[in-house]
Amino acid sequence: MHTKGILNAFQMKLLLVALMLLDHLYLYLPGMPDWFTWLGRLVAPVFTYLMVESYRHTSDKIRYIKRLTAAGLVMMAGNTLLTYIFGNTLSQNIFLSLAVSAGLLFYLDRFAQYMNRSHAFGIVCMFFLSFFCEGAIICPVMAVIFYYMRGNPPVMLLSFAGASVLLSLLLMPSFFPQVLMVGAALLLPLYNGRRGPGGAFAKWFFYVVYPVHIWILYAVNQLYFKA
Questions:
Q1: Which end of the chain is least crowded, N or C, by CB within 10 Å?
Q2: Phi, psi (5° rounding) for residue 215?
Q3: Contact between residue 43 and residue 179 where contact means Cβ atoms under 8 Å apart
Q4: Can you tell me the distance from the alpha carbon of 101 to that of 95, in angstroms, rounded to the nearest whole number?
């Protein structure tokens, strides 16, 4: 699937940021067209896939998980502060969803290698924690599919599509657009397996853009549309 793709990881993330911005404009600014949030359904699965790729290739998996967790905790602190200021809960935090998903892969790998009870407990713990994260078990389930079926792309994409429909119906039956995340199966083959440009900007771009744009849009919503 990687060899024929036209986008590297950084280019994919730029595309996802654009789609994510449309989704959050719809969420926080009244009057935005419905198709903004339809396109936004594609974002979480592809970010999960890219997280799996990063997890696979990193030389220090624990450090990578810690970085995702730290980003999630920083965003949680910002969300808590804004919730205190404006009085309406802000809970979006894909970082924690990705951190828990990466943690699940870590414990699954260790359990397969050592068959240790502590690693089995870690698996259960990660699944439990996922229910308190954005999207509940959606990201962890997707991560498992992408990680363990990556050697057979057709099966991986079909499994992803089936899981997308099933999870959408089970977890968000009243929110029809959620099922449109199945469309991410059309974006994944665009990835060519390459990282893209290096350097601090490429590494930290999403870690900064994701929380900051949400905080700004949330504040605009509270100041101008919740009075």
A1: C
A2: -60, -40
A3: no
A4: 10
With beta carbons less than 8 A apart as the criterion, state whether 68 and 95 touch: yes
What is the token pair recorded at 223? Answer: 């100041």
Model confidence over 5-31: pLDDT tens digits? Answer: 899 999 999 999 999 999 999 999 999
Q: What DSSP letter does each residue of the chain carry, written as one string? A: --TT--B-HHHHHHHHHHHHHHHHHHHHSTT--HHHHHHHTTHHHHHHHHHHHHHHH-S-HHHHHHHHHHHHHHHHHHHHHHHHHHSS-----HHHHHHHHHHHHHHHHHHHHH--HHHHHHHHHHHHHHTTSTTTTHHHHHHHHHHHSTTSHHHHHHHHHHHHHHHHHHH-TT-GGGGGGGGHHHHGGGB-S-----SHHHHHHHHHHHHHHHHHHHHHHHHHT--
Distances (CA, A) of 186 to 72, 110, 151, 174: 28, 32, 18, 24
How far, in whole angstroms, is CA 210 from its chain's centroid? 11
Residues whose CB is less than 8 angstroms from the CB of residue 18 and which lie 6 or more positions away in sequence, other chains included: none
Q: What is the pLDDT of residues 188-199, one digit of tens each?
A: 999 998 888 877
Distances, alpha carbon 63 to alpha carbons 26, 51, 66, 67, 145, in Å:
35, 13, 5, 6, 23
